[in-house]
Amino acid sequence: SQKIEQNSEALNIQEGKTATLTCNYTNYSPAYLQWYRQDPGRGPVFLLLIRENEKEKRKERLKVTFDTTLKQSLFHITASQPADSATYLCALERRDDKIIFGKGTRLHILP
Amino acid sequence: EPEVTQTPSHQVTQMGQEVILHCVPISNHLYFYWYRQILGQKVEFLVSFYNNEISEKSEIFDDQFSVERPDGSNFTLKIRSTKLEDSAMYFCASSTSDGANQPQHFGDGTRLSIL
Questions:
Q1: Are B103 and A92 a contacting pair at CB < 8 A?
Q2: Listed residue (B4, B79, B82, B80) closest to B46, CA to CA
Q3: Which one of A28, A29, A104, B20 has the largest count of C-beta atoms within 10 Å of its C-beta?
Q4: What is the DSSP letter of B86?
Q5: pLDDT at A95 over 70
Q6: Which of these, B114, B95, B110, lies nearest to B6 by C-alpha position?
Q7: 3-state SS assignment for residue A84
Q8: What is the pLDDT of residues B28-67, one digit of tens each?
Q9: In the 8-state DSSP scheme, what is residue B58?
Q10: Residue A68's closest CA among A30, A23, A96, A34?
């Protein structure tokens, strides 16, 4: 069955630095990969979608890469701010075209 | 921006009782979903719904669960006889089309506590 692993449960980054979060997957090559943000007590909020034929996608300070050879997506936040502190979820396409979520990485931006 | 709204925000229920969770999806969306997130765990798919019927359900969505779209706007999740392990956040989501090439829009969830 497909598995998603997000690199760590928690990540502490100094304000102003670039935060990089990792999503690795096994057993299937999805055509689409999504990233969501989840704040405590809130539902996930869609951030970016990247297709398998796109190596990179950007939106303001966010950048997502998708390496189908390594079976990995990297999610970058440049010039990080304390307001970027949240849990970030990777979600990828299952074989049946539905999506499954990773457990998420809690990001703390330290002022 | 249109939102998915869920009520109540917190539901406390005695074990064995029935509970109904309510959702109002975004009005022009056609696909509706329920997810569950146990505290500290990942978001887990329960069921998807399209054209007034279930299009897919997970192994979590057993006979104790049901979904309904009783009118043109509400989408409900019913748990018939709640168990302690049903305690979790339940999220409703909607999208314009099915499939992983479309984002899903989530509500802020209902926290279900089974005593």
A1: no
A2: B79
A3: A104
A4: G
A5: no
A6: B110
A7: helix
A8: 899 999 999 999 888 999 999 998 999 889 999 999 999 9
A9: -
A10: A30
CA atoms within 13 Å, Cβ hemisphere of B10: 3
Show which residues on chain B lie within 8 Å of chain A, measured between beta carbons: 4, 41-45, 48, 56, 91, 93, 98-101, 103-109, 111
Site from A25, A42, A64 to mutate, B interface, most B CB atoms within 10 angstroms? A42
- Helix %, strand %, coil % for chain B, to 5? 5, 50, 50
Distance of CA A103 to the CA centre of its chain: 11
* Ramachandran assignment for B100, one of left (phi > 0), alpha (psi -120 to 50 degrees), beta (any other): alpha
pLDDT, tens only, A11-66: 999 999 999 999 999 877 788 899 999 999 899 999 999 998 898 999 999 999 99
- In terms of phi and psi (left: phi > 0; alpha: psi -120 to 50; beta: otherwise), the region of B102 is beta
Find out whether A16 and A79 touch, Cβ atoms under 8 Å.
yes
Nearest CA to CA, how far is B71 from chain A (Å)?
24
